[in-house]
Design a protein that fits this description.
It is found in: Cell membrane. The chain is an all-alpha fold and 512 residues long. The protein has 19 helices and no strands. The chain is globular, with a radius of gyration of 24 Å.
Length: 512
């Protein structure tokens, strides 16, 4: 305990900065390639379904490895783990930059993902270990810059690079930072997280991979392939069965790969539920806005990315500030104010039209981001604060995994709602146009008919987007209701942790 106490008195800021940079470039890389996919399709002569695997495959590797991160963090020192993860990410980045074929590029992305999957849980766990509970808000607020800003600025940076240079430049930009972080880690990192001599249960890893991987793939492809596609519902069913089996197996194990019993802590369970609901609502802005801006309004991808940039910068500026406010006032006040702002701005997004100005869109999106910055990290940190230190790896792994899964579910849900509403509105608008057409007038030319059909589709899609934003507003209201039940968690004492361990052991003995 003396080592932990010394760490708490003087947190290792230099070491955290190295982890911070590594996590930032890894998470930035996750969204960096999205805008470049059309260029890669052209260069390697592959179709849209194939090229999408550069994003889908990256996400699946994350979904498989993040649940296992709890085991890795407990079993290995944080220095070895970070150097291994950063080494894999750097090797994948170099291979992607030089990739002579699409197959090599896809392999490189998988190698990158295998490294980046460990970064986020590892950084969170080091910060939870290095800072006492009463100072974690400020620390985790700074960490929020990585979690929120890196994915947000990815498309903007990517849009500018692809417009002026080759898509390979995206990897060339990331590579020097990766190498520098790797070198600094080899010389400067110290071990601060406790290790336990535990063994990996291979069957649990298989169940976890099928469970989380199946759900992520199924929900992520549902918006494109449709819910009636056998691959979609097949993978969702297989993932659900495997996940239930995985959870039941973990509950029966003395040293589980992922400890689900931490949901007995009420504030952690509540924060996890709120975070999942927010992740679903958050994706409405990230998915629906580009469709509205680019497809309906005809604004370029570069300008679309720039529209979202002030919001990302706002979240980056506010994240450390809200962290300090969390330390002073707790999560409930911040979450209720932030969610109220999110609900109001999301409702305004449900009333978009063809004349909504670019400035209005930037302003609304930035204010919405301001509200979001007051919710995500304070709520998550409050939940993690209730956990004993030994359960921090499980808490960070579960939070990161469930956010990925709920984000995929949210994307699929909102895209499905938008498509269904668009389809029904298109039929109604087409029927109205036919009914209002004067029979005595000459039939419109093919060009005029095509223009009319395009106008109908744009109007229908606008209705679909607005309705999806309205549903997203209602989802955010659920999070607001849950936020009123948040209570400030006091620092756990060693005695309380020991009593809880003893009671759990007694309960297990009785059940046996």
């Amino acid at each position: 305990m003396s080592e932990t106490k010394s760490i708490e008195k003087k947190p290792p800021y230099g070491m955290i900065a190295i982890l911070f940079i590594g996590a930032f470039v890894a998470i930035l890389n996750e969204t960096l390639l999205n805008v470049a996919l059309p260029s890669i399709m052209e260069d390697f002569d592959v179709n849209a379904t194939s090229v999408q695997w550069l994003s889908t495959g990256y996400m699946l590797i994350n979904g498989i490895l993040i649940p296992a991160s709890a085991f890795f963090i407990q079993r290995f020192t944080n220095k070895k783990l970070f150097i291994t993860a950063m080494g894999l990410f750097t090797a994948g980045t170099l291979l992607a930059s030089l990739a002579p074929s699409f197959g090599v590029l896809l392999t490189a992305r998988m190698i990158q993902a295998s490294g980046s999957a460990i970064m986020m849980p590892l950084l969170m766990n080091v910060m939870l270990t290095a800072f006492p509970v009463e100072k974690r808000g400020a620390a985790m607020g700074t960490f929020g810059i990585v979690m929120i800003v890196a994915p947000a600025i990815g498309p903007t940076l990517s849009g500018w690079v692809v417009e002026h240079y080759s898509w390979r430049t995206l990897f060339d930009i990331v590579l020097p930072f990766s190498v520098l972080t790797l070198v600094l880690a080899a010389f400067k990192l110290k071990n601060v997280t406790p290790q336990h001599d535990i063994k990996l249960d291979i069957f649990s890893l298989i169940l976890s991979s099928i469970g989380f991987g199946g759900l992520l793939y199924g929900f992520s492809t549902a918006g494109d392939k449709g819910w009636d596609d056998p691959l979609v519902y097949g993978t969702i069913i297989a993932g659900t069965i495997a996940l239930i089996s995985f959870v039941l197996r973990q509950l029966r194990m003395d040293d589980p790969m992922l400890e689900f019993r931490i949901y007995k802590y009420p504030m952690f369970a509540l924060s996890s539920a709120i975070s999942m609901v927010i992740a679903i609502a958050m994706f409405s802005g990230m998915i629906l806005m580009p469709i509205y801006i680019q497809t309906i309004r005809g604004i370029s991808p570069m300008e679309s990315g720039l529209l979202m940039l002030p919001g990302a910068l706002m979240m980056g500026i506010m994240s450390p500030i809200t962290g300090r406010l969390f330390d002073k006032y707790g999560a409930r006040a911040l979450a209720t104010i932030g969610l109220t702002i999110m609900i109001v701005t999301t409702y305004f997004f449900s009333r978009l039209d063809m004349e909504t100005s670019y400035t209005s869109l930037i302003l609304l999106y930035t204010i919405r981001s301001f509200g979001m910055s007051m919710v995500m990290m304070p709520v998550m940190t409050n939940g993690l604060n209730q956990l004993p230190m030994r359960d921090n790896p499980h808490g960070t792994a579960l939070n990161n995994t469930l956010q990925q899964v709920s984000g995929a579910i949210g994307s699929a849900l909102l895209i499905t709602i938008m498509n269904n509403r668009t389809e029904s509105e298109a039929k109604e608008l087409a029927a109205d146009a036919m009914a209002n057409m004067d029979p005595s007038m000459a039939q419109p030319s093919a060009e005029a008919a095509a223009g009319m059909q395009q106008q109908i589709m744009n109007e229908a899609m606008l209705h679909g987007i607005n309705f999806s934003f309205l549903i997203s507003t209602l989802i955010a209201v659920i999070a607001l209701v849950l936020a009123f039940f948040i209570k400030r968690v006091k620092p756990a004492t060693e005695k309380k942790e020991a009593d809880l361990t003893l009671s759990n052991a007694s309960a297990n003995a009785v059940s046996e």
